[in-house]
Amino acid sequence: MGSKLAPHLREIKRALDKSIEDEKLVADFKKLVEDYKVPIEEAKRSIIKKYSKVVAAAGKPPGSTSNDRSVKNLSQLKSGDKAVNVVCRVLEAKQMSIRTKDGQKDIIGGIIADESTKLPFTSWVISPVISEGDVIRIENAYVKAWQGIPTVSIGERTNMVKVDDVLPPKTELSASKRLTIGDAIARDGVFDVMVEGDVLSIRPGSGLIARCPECKRMVQKRLCRVHGKVDAQLDMRVKAILDDGTGALTIVLNKELTECLYGKSMEMSQKLAAEAGAGAVEEEIRRKLVGTPLAVRGNVSKGEYGVALVAKEARVPESKLENEMVKFLRDVCD
């Protein structure tokens, strides 16, 4: 095939099973472009769609190759993985400029997903292939940890190509995956997951706390271990142990979620602390929440203090609320 069409053929081959006979692929592509005058991009989409069905019928993962057995689901990726190949849908993609040791650098950051999970990604190259909503095949990427979560990194040696729409729609892939706590713990960090369990205990450091205005670390007696003496900012949180029978992890609830589940605002809590002592708020939270079933959404990461989920959402599951209401009504009626 002429030099004009050769680069497009290579893109098609990267998106498909490389064991497909070149002769047939070239003939089909050439017929569309040269004989039927189909625009090149439309011809590429047509060929990829046609041969993706052949690959799927052979029982191979979408976008995989017969000689490349390293195609993985996103949920299989671990920090430190190299030469990673995945097929995913781009849920979010935003170009931004960051400061590096070599000066300002333009990158693309966002979220990708397949049927197994979602993960953040960073592309150190600006590529038009990375477009929100599209399904792409990424070859020779690597995985680094960012805030305890595996993050797919795309570099100069990474190949990317759009492939046929072989994954569920964006709306479906955007939903949080529901996992048991045991499954979440077994992974090398999980991005945007939902778990359910019962609050076993409230950990020290819950209730009213003081934070460093610079690094947001918890401070005691106005001393930050990084910035020394600071004008601490008052905050409120819950650190609790959540258990579902398959495992247990630490959950961290921010001020808004704490106020919602505890039932008191930070101002009300300050008043209680002034009247009954600094530990009164933590103790009241303990009495209120221990034994409470919760559904919690957030990122699960592993660190020096164990496995923790920093919550974006937290609520009592509806089924549990219904059971509690039925029990309450029975008690009232008896």
Can you put this structure into words, describing what you see?
The chain is an alpha+beta fold. The chain has 3 domains: 6-57; 74-173, OB fold (Dihydrolipoamide Acetyltransferase, E2P) (Beta Barrel), CATH 2.40.50.140; 194-333, OB fold (Dihydrolipoamide Acetyltransferase, E2P) (Beta Barrel). The protein has 9 helices and 16 strands. It has a 5-stranded mixed β-barrel with strand order 1-2-3-5-4. Strands 8-13-14-16-15 form a 5-stranded mixed β-barrel. The N and C termini lie far apart (85 Å).
Brief rundown of the structure:
The chain is of the alpha+beta class and 334 residues long. It has helices at 6-15, 22-35, 40-57, 170-173, 181-186, 255-262, 266-276, 280-289, 318-333, and strands spanning 84-100, 103-113, 118-123, 135-146, 149-154, 159-162, 177-178, 190-202, 207-211, 218-219, 223-224, 228-229, 233-243, 248-253, 293-303, 306-315.
